[in-house]
Amino acid sequence: MLMGVNTEELKKAFTEFLKKKNMKITKTRLDLIDLIADYNKHFEIEELVNWISSRTDKRVSRSTIYRTIKLLEEFGAIKEVIKKDNKTIYEFVVGRSHHDHLICVECGKIIEFVSEDIEKLQDEVCEAYSFKPIHHRLEIFGLCKDCQEK
Amino acid sequence: MLMGVNTEELKKAFTEFLKKKNMKITKTRLDLIDLIADYNKHFEIEELVNWISSRTDKRVSRSTIYRTIKLLEEFGAIKEVIKKDNKTIYEFVVGRSHHDHLICVECGKIIEFVSEDIEKLQDEVCEAYSFKPIHHRLEIFGLCKDCQEK
DNA sequence: ATGAGTGCAAAGTATTTGCACGTAC
DNA sequence: GTACGTGCAAATACTTTGCACTCAT
User: Fold this and answer.
1) How large is the average pLDDT for residues B97-118?
2) CA distance A8 to chain B (A)
3) Domains of chain A
C-alpha cells in the first residue's frame, strides 16, 4: 500500500455492498480495490490493465476489471470523470470531496477544481425541473497555461 | 426544410470555412447540413445514419457522416453534448444559445437548461487556473419527474 | 487534368459475452 | 456440492481507414 486511503475499511464496506446484492466476496474483487487505490491517479482501463499485468503479486484479467469497475462504480468508489476520444477516464473517489475537471486538449493535463457555488446552482436547476440528480460530470476542455504559451 | 434555421446562411458560412481549409465544397457536405437541420433534435450517429438512409432525396454514407460530423464540430455547427453508455449524443447548435443537460437515467429524457451563473463561475475557475476554455460539457444524470413518481 | 471526396468493405478500438474451469459459501 | 466468479478467446459495437471510383476546381 503506497498511500493514505484506508482500503481495509473500504473493503469492509464493499463486502457489505456485495452481501446485500447476494454476490460473492472474492479475493479478486478485494484485490482490485487495493490495486486501484495503489494506482492512485486518474486512469483509463487499458492503462490499468497494463499496470496490473506488470505486477507480480496480484493479477486480474481484463474482463474481470471491466466487470468489477462497473460494480465499484455502482458502489461509489470510482467514477467516470472524463469522456475524451471515445475513452473513459476513471477516478478513485474515496475520501475525496466532489470536484470537476479542466482538461487540456493539447497535452492532456487534468486539473481538478472544486466549486461549491457551481454545485449549489446545479441543485437549484434540478429543483426547478423537479429533477432528482444522481451524479454529474462537468468537463471544461481548453488550453492549460503551458500550452497557451507555446 | 421543416424548420426555422436558415441553412442557406449556414451553408454559406460552412463554404467559407471549407475554403479557408482548402477543402472542397461538395454537394454531400452541404446536404448533410440540411439533413441535420431537418432532423432537428439530439441525435446519435447510428440514428442519423438510419434516418438518412430512409430518405430517398439525399443520401450520405456512414463513413462520410462520421467524417463530416467532425468537420461540422470543428466548424461549430454541432456539438457532442452527452456521453452515455459509450455513445455520443450530438446536437445541432446553430442559432441556439449555450445550454447544458439533465439526463434521465431511467427513460433517457433530455432536459435542456441555461444558467448564466454557472457559465460565469466556470469562467472564474478557468481564470484562477490561467486555463483558456474552448468548450465544456455539463451533464447531470438523475431521475426526471415522471420517473421519480413510478 | 488532378487531387480531394465518397462509398464500400475491411480493419481498428473499446467493451461485452459464452463457456469451461475454479472458488466462495 | 452448487452456483457464482474468473480468464480466455470470440463476439459485438462503434469508429476509422485503404482503395477504387467520382466529382469539384
Assistant:
1) 95
2) 30
3) 7-92 (1.10.10.10), 100-149 (3.30.1490.190)
